[in-house]
Each structure stands twice: as structure tokens, then as C-alpha cells.
Amino acid sequence: MTGDSEDPNDEVQYHIEVGEGDVADAVLLPGNPERIEKITQFWDDDEEVAHHREYRTVTGDYEGTPISVTSTGIGSPSAAIAVEELARVGADTFIRVGSCGAIQPDMEVGDLVITTGGVRQEGTSDAYVREDYPAVADYEVVSALVAAAERLDYDYHTGITMSADSFYAGQGRPGFEGFEAVGSDELVDGLKEANVKNIEMEASAIMTLANIYGLRAGAVCSVFANRETGEFLTEGENRAAETASLAVKLLARMDEIKAENGVERWHPGLSLD
Question: What is the DSSP string of 70-114?
Fold first, then answer.
């Protein structure tokens, strides 16, 4: 083993360039760096602490709760790097805040999808675990996201998300000059029949790494397109951002309630009020 010989700086993380004390316990993970402002607009204050490559990190406060956001870029490889390095500086809760394509006909553009588990169609998590290892969202994170969406009165769905490594062929879309991958014509129909709700590119890797390391993770995505109805509109980003931010506050309250009651896990018998 070479240890950390590839990292010349032991004060900040190699890719995301954050150090101890730069981030809160809970970090929101959008893909697009430009989505940062759409998230922090709901916070009381915010300060950029690092920006390197696709990784932009801002830390602030949401209604009295410390909170951070780090953009991950597109895809699971870069998202996994963010989780690895954020965990190294003390983060223990991760919520992907993204966009997705819905594949069930009753899902409207602009609705939210709160992920309960993932189909690991990305290859990043394969580097960590065997192929039959599940990608599962932490139930406290799911509960907080559902409670947040309910309090904000936003339309949402819960269920299984498929995370792909490819935006085009890997999601059943034609590639350059009409190229079609083997089985792509059956991909979406098969997922739809299995009651998978949506397709995106990072959630399953984030959840898998969090489970390996004993951390909390989940995902909330706004529906930009419905593959069944053909609708497409960049709608709902603000709803996902506000829902995730409120969920962080609710998770902090869950942690307080657990401490008050001397239990390790929050459950519905413990009120959030």
C-alpha cells in the first residue's frame, strides 16, 4: 500500500479542496455547480469555501441548522470522489439534489422523486461491492425528505431510482448518428414494468458508499422529463432545493430527539414537533 502518497497536501482534500471545519455534518450534492445558488437562496447565510474543477462547496445556515452543498459534476465517478473526501473531513449525511427522467405515466414534470433505493446501473459502485449488494437510502433521510415535501406541500413520489453511467445509450436514448446499444429499446419498458420511478446518474453510488461507511444518504430529484408521456421542461429545481434544505433541518431535529430519548435511530414513534 502507498497510503496517501498521491495526495501532496494533508490539509485539504485533493479534489474538492476542503479541510476540517469547512463543511457541516450534512451536505447536499447537486451535479451542476450552477445549481448552488438555487439551493443557497433558501438559506439564511452562505459562504463559498472551495471551488476546484466541478467541485464547488458552500457552507452556511438554514433556519439555525449548519448546512453545506458540494457540486459533483455529472456521473457517479465524480460523485463518489465527493462523498469519499467529504466523509474524510467529517460529513456524515448526504442528500443528492438533482434532476431526472420519470418513467411512470402518473408523474408530472416538476414533481419530486424521493429515492428509497437504487438500481446500480452505474459502474462506480461495482468497484466497491459485489454486484448483488443493494443501493438503499437511509430511512431517516427518506423520512426527513418526505416530511419536508409534505410541509412544503410539494407533489412527490417515492420509490426505486435507476442510476446510469450514460445519458444517451445507457438510458435507452439513441447515440450519435442514431446508434442504439444492445437492448436499449427494451430498457425503459423493463424498468417501468418493475415499478422503477426514475432515471438519473449518481444516486445509487452515493447511497452505496454511504452504506459501506455507516453514513446517511438519500436523494431528491425534480422531474425534468417524462419518458412515457414525452414531456420535457426544466421545472422543479427550486422545490428539490428547498425540500432538501428543510430535510437537513429535520434530520438535525431527529438527532436531537434521539439524544433526548437515549436511542440510536429515529422512528415514527418519536415526534418531530
Answer: E---SSHHHHHHHHHHHHHTT--EEEEEEEEEE-STTPPTT-EEE
